[in-house]
Design goal:
- This protein has two helices and eight strands; from the N terminus they run H-E-E-E-E-H-E-E-E-E.
- The chain has 201 residues and is of the alpha+beta class.
- A hairpin with a 2-residue loop joins strand 3 and strand 4.
- The protein has one domain.
- Strands 1, 2, 3, 4, 5, 6, 7 and 8 form an eight-stranded antiparallel beta sheet that branches.
Length: 201
Amino acid sequence: MTLVELLVSMSVFTLCMTVVFGAVILVVRKSTDVQKSADVTSALRLAMSQIDRQVRSGNVLFSPAGETTAGCATSGVNSGTCMRVFTQSNGTEKCVQWQIIIDPASPTTKLLRTRSWATDWATSGDLTGWSTVARGLTLEPGIDPFTLQGASTPYKERLLDVRLVAHDPRRNADVVEQSSMSGRNTSYGYNSAQCSLIPTA
């Protein structure tokens, strides 16, 4: 083999490897984008599923419109971005709070977080810290993510409208998860004082 043939062979091999590696990198990037898109959707669906279970077994639903100072962090809190439910799980009663706030890791987006506490948390110490459920959320102008319909008292059967919106960077579009959840008839034996003692944010 002459030197010229060797150089031509190496050039062809280099060109082929460049094309192959370029294709591999493109596939990896597309796979990452698709995974991020799937993560956005699955996180919203998981959050919606958790909220739905808590509302359906809820004893008291509190109006999100009045939650701006009810234990929610004051930074980035708007009416309708924080909600509270007195619910039960496996026979254990607890208070649950959900909130959408500015994401400290990405200030241009919001995050959805939740926490819970026992009604006697002040003496028992039974409360959890905030845990993040979903990131990359946005707030739509004039539309509250949490809205309570129905009776004016906090212990009647009512509908809770939940609308969670996150941006999908792959499609450059918003992903919307929306549901109206029905709280059970809780007019017997419960009142709004059940979760009135709220831990600080």
